[in-house]
Structures are given as structure tokens and as C-alpha cells.
Design brief:
This protein is of the alpha/beta class. Helix 3 links the parallel strand 2 and strand 3. 39% of the residues are buried.
Length: 469
């Protein structure tokens, strides 16, 4: 069931009276919600309905929203693929996996011109067509994609076609508004229903077109910025932004980290980043500390066996004793060689540190970039106090692409998404990281910023090398 506001319900009645209709509006104005409701209503009335979009993650979301309605939902590339797979019979089109796609997906995945020509040929030869076609996020559709979508319609007076798109002039490279906005008087959604307050004000400053809200937007909506100056302050700024979001959203439920890098989230600089939160240090369900790997990283080269260590979350008394005895015995047997090892720095103390990606490492207190020679490592582990400074084995946040979540059960998983993956979706809170992003023009940059910031409903934290306001 799709919930509508009173205004959307009135617009839905208007859509029902149109054969071909365009609906345009700013991000967060309710286009997708209205499109889903329109598709469901047409299906309930007995029409065979196809709903298309660009982003396969949005297709998955729409499939869940429209479950049981009878509406067939496809990401357009998956729809073309299913057409080509069904070409074993010229008269029968058998839909396959409506919302499926071949992961990992990127914004560059698209049907070839040859695929599109074959798809048009298949549609022109089959009588298994649709009585209604709904296109969401139409600004992402090339002209030939829209031609394929229209060819899916039955040739009858009852056929319905609707396209929903954002009329931001920098977001519509394929210009559906030039094709459809004047077919009939377009329906204009001018009020943001997703976010209000400071988020709404920021979005209006980034949208130079006619979709600037002329009515009060949704309540709430806060924006905060963290400006970083170098690589080190980048990670610190991101951590501060997340911990500040944690004050409003415990365990960061409903918060997504969105990166505007050119790479996908799986290849992001921030994929696997671990955030150590004071709130999680008292977590009743401790995670894995990984002290075994850290000790072996220092001593395995000298002969310490992995089997000598237990699998306990923290070293047991027996573990401490075994490591200490091993280090003392090795030092005694090789004292003459170790005393002549270069790089000996007795003036620095050693301590355990957790790096930005959750790996436990032994480092010098005042010179953590120096390599630790064997003589210092063995001396450190020769004392039972080597385990005293180990951090606690509490849960930590780990920034993880959604397809990697199952691999890290000992962390609180925090979704890391790239902009193409999260386009057309939304979250209660968005932490946006602008890193190494070089747009071709100021217009391209502002369009990217508009798309990213408009994903947030109530909280928007921005980590950037400069202030965007």
C-alpha cells in the first residue's frame, strides 16, 4: 500500500484522466511515491502495468512497495536484458526477474545500441504488450530508451503513458521535458515533501529552475559541515560527522554515508573504514579484537605459531604466558644478533593502536610511522604487560557496501553508498563525503551536490575540503 498526502491524492485523480502525461518536480517532491500509487491504481483497475526506472536499487525498492499489486517493475537495463532472453519465441514475452540486475552495478551499465534495436524489433513482433507504462526518474532515460518504453504500449485508446522526472536543467542531459512537457499541460510538483528546514534551503539554492518550492516544505532538516584540510583531517572530520549524527540516531540507524567519488562504493577510499564510538564501547555484545593477528604480525617471523594462541576475544593468562616465554627464549638464544640489529630506538615506548580500518597494530608512542625492529618487539613481548594496553573488544562501526555486509558480523555495519547507487533513494540521515571530486564544470558539481544532498530527510552532514554554503 502506498500512502499519499491529500494533495497527492488529488493529483492522482488528475493523472487518471490523462492518456499521456508528464510529471515534473524537484527532488523529494513525491514523484516516485505518486508514480508507484498511479501504477498500483491502474493495475487494480485491471491494466497490465509496466514500471521502469534507471537505478536497479530503486527498482528493488519499488518492487517491495508494490508487492502483490501485479505491477511489473524493472530497471531499464534489466528489462532490455529480459527481452533479449525471451527472444526464443517471437510471439511470447516472458518477464524474468523484474527487479534483478547483475551486481556490482555502476551508472555506466546500459544497453548497447544493438541491444536496443533488437529490443524494439522484439516488441514490434509480439502481442504481449502493456496497457500502461510508467517511467520514473525519466531524466536518466535517453531518447531511444523512451522510444522502447512507448513501444511497450498496446495500440489502443485505453493505453496510458506517464513519465516522472526532475526538471533541474543540469540533471536532464537527455531532455525528456523537451519531448513530453508539452504533450499535455504537465503536472508540476513544486513542494519538497522529503526534507525541510536548512536542507530545503540548501536544495533551493542549488536548483535554479522552476521547481523551487513556493509552499512551506516538510518540517525539520538540519545541515552541518566539517571542512578538512588534508588526508589526516579527512578521516577525523568523517568520524566527527558520524559521532555527531549518532547523537540524533542511536547506533546510526537510518544513516547512510554517501560518497561522491568516481569509483563505486566497493572501491571507495572509505570502504572498510572503522569508526570507534564511545557509545559502542559499552556494547553488551563485544566484537572481535583481532589481537591474535596483531601478535603474529610482530612475532610470526621469529617462529611463533598461530596454534600457540587461543581464539578468545582477549588474551587469556595462558596466552600471555606463552607469548612472554617465547619472546624471552628467542631473545636469549639470539641476543648477540639482536643487539647488533640496526634501527634500535630505546627512547620510544610501544603501545597498541587501532588503525582507521579496524586493524590492531603495535606502534611507537611518539613516532608511529617508524618500523619496529625485532629487538624492540621482542623486548616488548618479553614482559607480561604486553596485553595491558590492548583496547577492549567492543563493537565498532564499519563502513561497508551492502553486498559485503555478511562478511563482518562483529561490527555494526554502516551503509556506504556511491551516488549512482543511492540515486532516487532516501535516508533519515546522510553523511556526504566529498573527496577527490573534480567536476567538469561548476554546474556539474552543483548538480552532483543537489542529487547527493536531496537524499536526506532530516539530517545532512557534509565533509568537504571547502564550505559549500
Amino acid at each position: 500500500m502506498v500512502d499519499l498526502t491529500g494533495e497527492q491524492a488529488q493529483l492522482l485523480e488528475h493523472l487518471n484522466s490523462q492518456r499521456f502525461v508528464s510529471v515534473l518536480g524537484c527532488a523529494g517532491s513525491g514523484k516516485t511515491t505518486l508514480a508507484a500509487a498511479f501504477a498500483a491504481q491502474l493495475s487494480q483497475a485491471g491494466s497490465h502495468v509496466l514500471m521502469l526506472c534507471r537505478n536497479p536499487y530503486l527498482a528493488e525498492d519499488l518492487t517491495q512497495r508494490l508487492a502483490g499489486s501485479g505491477v511489473e517493475v524493472y530497471a531499464f537495463p534489466a528489462f532490455v536484458r529480459s527481452l533479449l532472453l525471451s527472444d526464443h519465441s517471437p510471439d511470447v514475452f516472458v518477464p524474468r526477474s523484474p527487479s534483478g540486475w547483475q551486481a556490482p552495478w555502476t551508472q555506466f551499465d546500459a544497453p548497447t545500441q544493438s541491444d536496443l534495436r533488437r529490443a524494439l524489433d522484439i516488441l514490434q513482433r509480439t502481442d504481449q504488450l502493456y496497457e500502461a507504462v510508467i517511467v520514473d526518474e525519466g531524466q536518466d532515460f535517453e531518447t531511444v530508451w523512451l522510444e522502447v518504453a512507448e513501444t511497450c504500449l498496446q495500440d489502443s485508446q485505453a493505453a496510458r503513458f506517464a513519465i516522472f522526472f526532475d526538471d533541474h536543467p543540469w540533471l536532464a542531459p537527455f531532455g525528456p521535458q523537451r519531448v513530453y512537457a508539452d504533450v499535455q499541460a504537465p503536472v508540476i510538483l513544486s513542494r519538497s515533501l522529503r526534507s525541510g528546514g536548512e536542507i530545503d534551503g540548501l536544495l533551493r539554492s542549488l536548483h535554479p529552475g522552476r521547481s523551487q518550492p513556493d509552499q512551506p516544505a516538510a518540517p525539520g532538516g538540519t545541515v552541518r559541515e566539517w571542512v578538512y584540510t588534508d588526508e589526516s583531517s579527512l578521516f577525523d572530520s568523517l568520524r566527527q560527522a558520524l559521532l555527531a549524527a549518532e547523537e540524533s540516531y542511536p547506533l546510526l540507524d537510518g544513516v547512510v554515508v554517501l560518497t561522491a567519488e568516481s569509483a563505486s562504493s566497493r572501491l571507495s577510499k572509505f570502504s572498510g573504514l572503522v569508526i570507534d564510538s564511545p557509545r559502542l564501547r559499552v556494547s553488551p555484545s563485544p566484537g572481535r579484537l583481532g589481537w591474535q593477528e596483531a601478535v603474529l604480525r610482530c612475532l610470526q617471523g621469529y617462529g611463533l605459531l598461530e596454534s600457540a594462541l587461543s581464539d578468545r576475544p582477549a588474551p587469556t593468562a595462558q596466552d600471555i604466558k606463552k607469548v612472554t616465554q617465547f619472546s624471552r627464549a628467542y631473545t636469549a638464544a639470539h641476543r648477540r644478533v639482536l643487539s647488533r640489529e640496526p634501527g634500535y630506538l630505546p627512547k620510544y615506548g610501544l603501545a597498541w593502536h587501532m588503525d582507521s580500518f579496524g586493524a590492531l597494530r603495535l606502534r611507537y608512542d611518539q613516532a608511529d610511522d617508524l618500523e619496529i625492529p625485532g629487538v624492540d618487539a621482542l623486548r616488548y613481548f618479553s614482559s607480561p604487560g604486553w596485553a595491558d594496553s590492548l583496547p577492549s573488544a567492543h563493537r565498532r562501526y564499519r563502513l561497508t557496501a551492502d553486498n559485503d555486509w555478511a562478511e563482518y558480523p562483529d561490527y555494526h555495519r554502516l551503509l556506504l553508498a556511491d551516488l549512482p547507487r543511492y540515486k532516487s533513494l532516501e535516508a533519515e540521515g546522510i553523511v556526504l563525503v566529498l573527496y577527490n571530486y573534480f567536476a567538469g564544470s561548476e554546474e556539474d558539481f552543483k548538480a552532483t551536490l543537489y542529487l547527493a544532498c536531496s537524499r536526506a530527510r532530516r539530517l545532512l552532514h557534509i565533509v568537504a575540503p571547502f564550505s559549500i554554503r
